[in-house]
Design goal:
Helices cover 25% and strands 20% of the residues. It has two domains: 4-33 and 75-107 and 261-388, 3-Layer(bba) Sandwich (FAD/NAD(P)-binding domain), CATH 3.50.50; 116-258, FAD/NAD(P)-binding domain (3-Layer(bba) Sandwich). A hairpin with a 4-residue loop joins strand 6 and strand 7 (86-89). It has a five-stranded parallel beta sheet. Strands 8-7-6-19 form a four-stranded mixed beta sheet, with no helix packed on it. The protein has a four-stranded parallel beta sheet with strand order 13-12-11-17. It has nine helices and 20 strands. The chain is α/β, with parallel strands linked by helices. The longest helix is centred in the middle third of the chain and has 21 residues, at 164-184.
Length: 393
């Protein structure tokens, strides 16, 4: 019998995990509260009217319909019972699972700054992008009627966060003002519109190498973006942004791209949390049958490895070491294992004499009955320990 894996979240991590696990022969149920996969890196272009929402949203069923073994369920997860291994859905349904992959992504973190939750515009989903686009256009329409709003900073935008999202957003806003709105509103002094980028660190794009950081700074300044590095936001009001040095920026629009935290998911007992609210990965997680991947998992590195591939790499390494393949929760980025003296890249372990090893491919210490070089094994020749091979100990 194939193990049933429930993957919560249809983002990059969830889709990658579902496709990899289904390709390995598992029965996968993909649960998401929306029926489309969102290409988040281009949200800023929807917010600046460069793209339509349909250009970055793809139906989940259309993505996985060619791959057997994946079932899509449109529902919102309201709770997880880790003891009985059951997922509770908002429509009253329940999904039993053998293994659970949590890939719910992230939400914006305001870090307790007063006024951010009430007045700032995050950029995490299509609703956020459309709300920001509509707000910008409505602000220009009102300013065209009442010119006194221009003096109050109605045309100015403050972007907080000098990461990729903040830098892309600031540059796209500057181009929108200069190349599009300046022509659409010929009588409006669009040249008085300001785009201010606020970054807490000493430079923008901290994760990138120094030449790229310098190039990004030059491009922003060439587009008349005011870059304020080494500053944080103290307070946000409906018409201004107060920095830590007391400077007040008059602006009716604040884009918050300063950071994220893991999207919360209620569980009983509660999932252990680490940095940014994500579940700790590797040896610090002790949740039987549960993994987190993508933005909902903590990692010392900025990016995450494809969850399904990490599962397979961990099983390969565990077989070579003769240990359980699930001593840790897999899902965050790990260095890809190199060639082993007893195995070749892309193949199952071989013995010292060159023959294919007769040990169990699941690494569970059974007699070595396996269902083939791929897949979970047939019902007549299946590893006796495969039902518990992915449990966290």
């Amino acid at each position: 019998m194939k193990p049933h894996v429930v993957v919560v979240g249809g983002g990059f991590g969830g889709l990658a995990a579902a496709r990899e696990l289904a390709g390995d022969g598992a029965s996968v149920t993909l649960v998401d509260r929306r029926n489309f996969h969102l290409f988040q890196p281009l949200l800023y272009q929807v917010a600046t009217a460069a793209l339509e929402p349909a250009d970055i949203a793809y139906p989940l069923r259309g993505v996985v319909h060619r791959q057997p073994g994946i079932t899509v369920r449109l529902a919102e997860v309201v709770g997880v019972d880790l003891t009985s291994r059951c997922v509770r859905l908002g429509d009253g349904g329940r999904l039993a699972y053998d293994h659970l992959v949590v890939a719910t992504g992230s939400v914006s973190a305001d870090y307790g700054v007063p006024g951010v939750a009430e007045h700032a515009f995050p950029l995490k989903n299509l609703d956020d992008a459309l709300a920001l686009r509509n707000h910008l256009l409505e602000t220009f329409e009102r300013s065209d009627v009442d010119r006194s709003l221009v003096d109050a900073g109605s045309l100015s935008v403050v972007v907080v966060g000098g990461g990729p999202t903040g830098v892309e957003m600031a540059g796209a806003l500057a181009e929108l003002f200069d190349k599009v709105l300046a022509k659409d509103f010929p009588t409006l002094p669009v040249d008085r519109a300001r785009v201010v980028l606020v970054e807490m660190g000493a430079e923008v794009l901290p994760p990138f190498v120094k030449p790229l950081r310098a190039y990004a700074l030059r491009q922003l300044r060439a587009r008349r973006v005011e870059v304020r590095t080494g500053h944080t936001v103290r307070e946000v009001t409906a018409g201004s942004v107060v920095l830590d040095d007391g400077e007040v920026l008059a602006a009716r629009t604040l884009v918050w791209a300063a950071g994220v935290r893991a999207s919360p998911i209620p569980a009983e007992p509660a999932l252990p949390t680490g940095r940014a609210g994500g579940s700790p990965s590797r040896r610090t997680c002790r949740c039987p049958g549960t993994r987190r991947c993508g933005r909902s998992a903590t990692s010392r590195r900025p990016w995450t490895r494809r969850a399904g591939r990490s599962f397979r790499w961990r099983r390969r390494r565990s077989r070579e070491a003769g240990t359980s393949p699930s001593r840790s929760c897999v899902g965050t980025r790990a260095s890809r294992p190199g060639r082993s003296p007893t195995s070749t890249r892309g193949s199952w372990p071989r013995s010292a004499g060159g023959r294919r090893s007769r040990s169990c491919r699941w690494g569970c210490g059974c007699a070595g009955r396996s269902g083939g070089s791929r897949g979970w094994g047939s019902t007549s020749s299946r590893c006796s320990g495969s039902a518990t091979a992915w449990r966290c100990s």
